[in-house]
TrEMBL record:
Signal peptide boundaries: none
Record-given protein name: Autoinducer 2 import system permease protein LsrD
Its biological purpose: Part of the ABC transporter complex LsrABCD involved in autoinducer 2 (AI-2) import. Probably responsible for the translocation of the substrate across the membrane.
Transmembrane spans: 33-53, 74-96, 143-166, 228-252, 273-291, 303-320, 327-345
Pfam families: BPD_transp_2 (PF02653)
Highest taxon above the source species: Bacteria
Species per Swiss-Prot/TrEMBL record: Stagnihabitans tardus
Coiled coil: none
Taxonomic classification: Bacteria, Pseudomonadati, Pseudomonadota, Alphaproteobacteria, Rhodobacterales
Length: 379
């Protein structure tokens, strides 16, 4: 007797899948869960190592302190990754769309020099500013002006990257490598290699003030952590954008299959320009916060930032072939970076071991990504 065409499906038979069956055993966890697990394991390892040495890592052991967590160490860890973390948010989007950005660190350096030139105060201890770049008419400007200048410089560099990649068809590696060298040269040329210092008080408060206290009308304070607040805000913003807007859908579509994206009517070239422009803009944000935090700008600022940003994204589970990855994963990757740096410092291990371990983790993350891709293709 034949099976009825209505009613419940027999066990093991698929419905509407062309004979394919749903197998719960083949479900896979999102890559972010694996990154989060790795983060927990690393925290546990450093906590154990510190306890063996009579100290602690993230948890308090002092009887005279009621707090569970070591707030001072957490604050330091957040500051360590906030600036590069903002860059990594832009780099993440560039990699998802199928590109790469090697210029972000140099763009930070060039933007820092230009921005600080417009943020200087006219008098230092009653004397003319010894580091002045422009004349007195360009001193003591409203804080909004250096902010806009910094964002504009970063945006301009990102636009150049995007235009080169999209319309000249130069490989992203070469296009952004050229920008990296050019921007670094520009940062040294701007003031003949001399540092630029002595910003206005209002500019220094951009990073060193209490933004959270201002936003909560004094109810909650987090002095000196403005870069971390900006990083977290931008992470949430771009997480929502990538997951709930056409911009995000087109970014993933282009990275997954550029030819199919073109056939579906997406203006691929224009979208690539937009993605690179956003990455440059975020590098500008980092430069503004970095110079405000340090109260100075130097031509060497931002060295290796682009590689650290790419590493955060890769550790966070992003695929270098494009089309896969998330802002959440990058944030977790940044957290792992912070744990590595602070963890090795807490056990008093030399700094060069940190670089070795970071390099090994990056290579391991790429190997795992390649393995996932091969497994997906076989499936």
């Amino acid at each position: 007797m034949s099976q009825p065409t209505t009613g419940s499906q027999p066990t093991g038979q698929a419905h509407g899948l062309g004979g394919l069956k749903y197998d719960p055993a083949k479900r896979t966890r999102a890559p972010e869960w694996n990154v989060a697990l790795a983060l927990v394991i690393m925290v546990a390892i450093f906590e154990i190592l510190n306890r063996l040495n009579g100290g602690s890592f993230l948890f308090n052991m002092r009887d005279n302190v009621d707090a569970i967590f070591n707030q001072q160490r957490i604050d330091i860890m957040l500051l360590q990754v906030a600036i590069v973390g903002i860059i990594s948010l832009g780099v993440t989007q560039v990699i998802i769309v199928g590109g790469i950005d090697l210029s972000s660190g140099s763009v930070v350096g060039a933007t820092a020099m230009v921005t600080m030139s417009f943020a200087q105060t006219a008098l230092v201890n009653g004397n003319p500013n010894p580091k002045a770049v422009f004349g007195p008419e360009w001193m003591d400007l409203p804080v909004l002006i250096p902010i806009v200048v910094g964002l504009a410089v970063g945006l301009f560099a990102g636009l150049i990257n995007g235009l080169l990649v999209a319309y000249t068809k130069i490989p992203p590696f070469i296009a952004t490598l050229g920008m990296m060298v050019t921007a670094r040269g520009a940062s040294r040329w701007w003031s003949n290699g001399n540092p630029i210092s002595f910003p206005t008080e209002s500019y220094g408060q951009l990073s060193n003030g209490d933004l959270l206290g201002t936003l909560t009308f004094g109810l909650v304070h987090w002095q000196g952590q403005n870069p971390a607040l900006v990083f977290l805000f931008l992470a949430v913003l771009f997480h929502l954008i990538l997951n709930h807007t056409l911009y995000g859908k087109w970014t993933y579509a282009i990275g997954s299959n550029e030819a199919a994206a073109r056939m579906s009517g997406i203006n691929v070239d224009r979208h690539k320009v937009l993605v690179y422009a956003i990455a440059g803009l975020l590098a500008g944000v980092s430069a503004v916060l970095l110079t405000s935090k340090n109260l100075t700008a130097q031509a060497g600022m931002g060295v290796m930032y682009e590689l650290d940003a790419i590493a955060m994204a890769v550790i966070g589970g992003i695929s270098l072939s494009g089309g896969r990855g998330s802002i959440l994963g990058t944030v977790l990757g940044a957290a792992i970076f912070s744990v590595i740096i602070s963890g090795f410092t807490s056990i008093q291990l030399d700094a060069y071991y940190q670089e070795m371990v970071k390099g090994a983790i990056i290579v391991g993350a790429v190997i795992l990504d390649q393995a996932r891709q091969r497994k997906r293709m076989r499936a």
